[in-house]
From TrEMBL:
Role according to the record: Cell wall formation. Adds enolpyruvyl to UDP-N-acetylglucosamine.
Domain Enolpyruvate transferase: 8-419
Keywords for the protein's UniProt record, in alphabetical order: Cell cycle, Cell division, Cell shape, Cell wall biogenesis/degradation, Cytoplasm, Peptidoglycan synthesis, Transferase
GO molecular function: UDP-N-acetylglucosamine 1-carboxyvinyltransferase activity
Protein name: UDP-N-acetylglucosamine 1-carboxyvinyltransferase
Main localisation: cytoplasm
Family: Belongs to the EPSP synthase family. MurA subfamily.
Known catalytic reactions: phosphoenolpyruvate + UDP-N-acetyl-alpha-D-glucosamine = UDP-N-acetyl-3-O-(1-carboxyvinyl)-alpha-D-glucosamine + phosphate
Metabolic or biological pathway, per its Swiss-Prot or TrEMBL entry: Cell wall biogenesis; peptidoglycan biosynthesis
């Protein structure tokens, strides 16, 4: 188990470039299974989960060529369906949450797929009902072996239909879209997710020859086609990293410029941090965050306490609530953090309380943060990263704290943030990997 030793209390300064979007990568990479022609993808983040998915595709028979540090060419012209019966595939699928994204493409192109229950962060229940219900409506027949092995077949092919999703699941919508583009007839998906990641997937599929209307809305209409061709695609910068760097700058009193942010795709993220009192300036496609001694949380017009909550797009992504919570620790004022979508993502606040934060955990979904207004610094402690996003929130807290902190289980952080220690050290941080 690797650890970070962090010596906090040092302001950072400089420029940093966000990695490619992890959540987009897990969808885009699986879409290469929809065609036998080459697909070139750039701005791929060099992180554990993405690298494991690339390894899975390679082991399934997809030809993988690395053209540059962040650019790969894929060609799925000889997919080995028998590999899905191997023990190695079962082990890979269990270890990687993103493996679920092969279901739609494989079912659409080859008429069958199977998968063990995928792994991932322990952040509460993450049911896959939306995936399977949507694929079944298209004509897939699902069987469950034991309690955690799924088989799905479409012996008579997939047929378009109307469906109203039970939730606007991003990965569920993506799986259904990837299946529907090769289904016979018209598929209408209402209550579809419309996150930028999903929009990127749809735009890529259109370049490959798919017919999709309503991109960017929650109502997608897809006319099935017989086959798709190759394409080139560049992924968006990771909005979670961008938000993390904004929060890091404020919490540590640092002056940081975040480069190449694709600002129009960030939605309400910049304004959410502005509500915490954080100054930031959009300069072209960069975001400049000046060093700030103080930042004050806004209130509602009637003076009541601000609530920051997660929601489906265009609301705030749940992946940033851990960062918002940590940043509020050193703000002036009080904020209620309401994590609606997962029931275990706030369970890292005990570590922040041990560091000196004033936080009341109301229930598994809500926490009240009373800001310290930088009157008292947090103190360094030893702690363990429970998941990717909480791990980075704890890293931000440690960088702002007085003294030495040790964060164990940083493999969790590595799953979502590439070389985060080296990149922050280049700005003046003191992080040592143990």
């Amino acid at each position: 188990m690797a650890s970070f030793e962090v010596i906090g209390g040092h302001p950072l300064k400089g420029e940093i470039v966000p990695q490619g979007a992890k959540n987009e990568a897990l969808q885009i990479l699986c879409a290469v299974l929809l065609t036998s022609e080459p697909v070139t993808i750039s701005n791929i983040p060099d992180i554990r989960d993405v690298n494991k998915l690339i390894e899975l595709l390679r082991d399934m028979g997809v030809k993988v060529g690395k053209l540059a540090s962040d650019t790969y060419r894929f060609q799925a012209d000889a997919v080995n369906l028998d590999y899905l019966d191997s023990e190695q595939f079962v082990a890979q699928g269990r270890a990687l949450r993103g493996s679920v994204m092969i279901l739609g493409p494989m079912l659409a192109r080859f008429g069958k797929c199977q998968l063990p229950k995928p792994g991932g962060d322990k952040i509460g229940r993450r049911p896959m009902d939306t995936h399977f219900l949507g694929l079944e409506k298209l004509g897939g027949k699902l069987t469950l072996e034991g309690t955690d092995f799924y088989r799905i077949k479409a012996e008579n092919g997939l047929r378009g239909t109307y469906m109203l999703l039970d939730e606007a699941s991003v990965t569920g919508t993506a799986n259904i879209v990837m299946a529907a583009v090769l289904a016979q007839g018209t598929t209408t998906i209402y209550n579809a997710a419309c996150e930028p990641y999903l929009q990127q997937l749809c735009k890529m599929l259109v370049r490959m020859g798919a017919k999709i209307n309503g991109i960017g809305s929650n109502l997608l209409t897809i006319e099935g086609v017989e086959s798709l061709g190759g394409t080139e695609h560049r992924m968006l910068p990771d909005m979670i990293e961008i938000g993390s760097f904004i929060g890091l700058a404020a919490m540590t009193g640092s002056e940081i410029t975040i480069k190449d942010c694709q600002v129009p795709e960030l939605g309400i993220i910049p304004d959410t941090f502005r509500k915490l009192g954080i100054q930031l300036e959009v300069r072209g496609d960069d975001i400049y965050v000046p060093a700030q001694d103080h930042y004050e949380i806004a209130t509602y017009l009637d003076g009541s306490i601000l609530t920051v909550s997660d929601h489906t797009w265009p609301g705030l992504t749940p992946d940033l609530l851990s960062i918002v919570l940590v940043v509020a620790i050193q703000a002036k004022g009080t904020v209620l953090i309401h994590q609606k979508m997962f029931e275990s993502r706030l369970f890292f606040v005990d570590k922040l309380i041990d560091m000196g934060a004033q936080i009341t955990l109301c229930d598994p979904h809500r926490a009240i943060v009373i800001g310290l207004d930088k009157r008292n610094a947090l103190r360094g402690i030893s702690m363990t990263s429970p998941d990717i996003r909480a791990g980075v929130a704890l890293l931000i807290a440690a960088l702002s704290a007085d003294g030495r902190s040790v964060i164990d289980n940083v493999e969790q952080i590595d799953r979502g943030y590439q070389f985060i220690d080296k990149r922050l050290n280049a700005l003046g941080a003191q992080i040592r990997r143990l």
